Amino acid sequence: xxxxxxxxxxxxxxxxxxxxxxxxxxxxxxxxxxxxxxxxxxxxxxxxxxxxxxxxxxxxxxxxxxxxxxxxxxxxxxxxxxxxxxxxxxxxxxxxxxxxxxxxxxxxxxxxxxxxxxxxxxxxxxxxxxxxxxxxxxxxxxxxxxxxxxxxxxxxxxxxxxxxxxxxxxxxxxxxxxxxxxxxxxxxxxxxxxxxxxxxxxxxxxxxxxxxxxxxxxxxxxxxxxxxxxxxxxxxxxxxxxxxxxxxxxxxxxxxxxxxxxxxxxxxxxxxxxxxxxxxxxxxxxxxxxxxxxxxxxxxxxxxxxxxxxxxxxxxxxxxxxxxxxxxxxxxxxxxxxxxxxxxxxxxxxxxxxxxxxxxxxxxxxxxxxxxxxxxxxxxxxxxxxxxxxxxxxxxxxxxxxxxxxxxxxxxxxxxxxxxxxxxxxxxxxxxxxxxxxxxxxxxxxxxxxxxxxxxxxxxxxxxxxxxxxxxxxxxxxxxxxxxxxxxxxxxxxxxxxxxxxxxxxxxxxxxxxxx
Length: 516
Ligand code: BG6
Fold this sequence. Notes:
By secondary structure, this protein is α/β, with parallel strands linked by helices.
């Protein structure tokens, strides 16, 4: 049965664009179908795609996870997740049409029987429709299972057929170290061709991240300034007000460096620093990003204390309530030295960027949720105003806000009205919400569509993910509990604050972090 769709002319033109390009009939298989990611992100994204009419007319969803349950029970869970987390209130017909296509398969991921059963189910879809459906396997499980599932897909023959028909989508984290990432890549590429592999970094699916490419490469005015001659420093911040929620099991193994910096934040850095690609093909765009990553030297051990800072949140006040410290969170070992805040100073050693510091910081339980890139230009070479007049003059800043209040702000110096020449910074602002009057699709909507369509532009390539690890791996090792330099209890910052004061130590003299 085809899924009914509601489409609205006024809605996001990008999604409207997606509607026009057909996606081959597809069976999507989600491993880890009862997990948090599936419930909060993947199922609501699928509903919204169905709502837009963007899913292929022939579409089947198979959920696999360990728990025994009937198809109907799983459908009821899907419905509940969609009602709870969809960005729009579900239309009953569209929802019913989507749920009709859902099947559930219980099983453990290392049991070959599960894959035999899955194969039969997928073959039945082909027989029912009289055509070969493309198959997309979405690995939304704990990372330990990625390798197991890939191996089983290979062993059962499910990875083979024509390459264009079988794809594997792999969630983050892609390994917990450079070594693991290499091993996982080797495993994945022994079963699949790289063109079949879609490694998720959900930041790449965010409208505002894609807009950075439009901002840089669809506007001529910034390019002449976009280099070491005019840019003084770049600060990239991913601050969250929330703590770790119920994710202690994962987070305590990961920490802020692996959770956000190794992937999302390095991707943001790449978007700022990359050269214009010759064309917007997947390979050209990813080639340019990999060049940036290769231009960042892996930190030497001796340099790490001067360029990297970590800390943990202590009890404090957030969202109007008293909140516990990290060590008091449920499931966190009382002696954990996992960082919930990390800040780095990196340099991109190439012709365009040599000498410009790129500061990256990410943390949980900070003053508020904000993801932004602040580019500070060099100060003017000479101030002709009187001393008073010059006081308010500050270097220009360009701030790309990814969330919330997505937009771009250009900070300029302007004369304060009056008889004296006094100057202060003012903002020129573009806000997504007011300029486009539409709700942006969730990153996962775009990414699921692109993976089903076989467009890897917004996914991380094998060499890219390894290059990201090459930068972070020495710091991960240096911060490991077993490293001789391990400092005992970590620096702390109060929940709801700006982060640890030690973060200032990696800045150059006279510099400060932007307020969160
Ligand atoms: C995930 C991290 O990848 O990104 C989370 O695992 C983090 O810890 C999340 O909260 C942030 O994503 P967003 O889209 O809310 O910025």
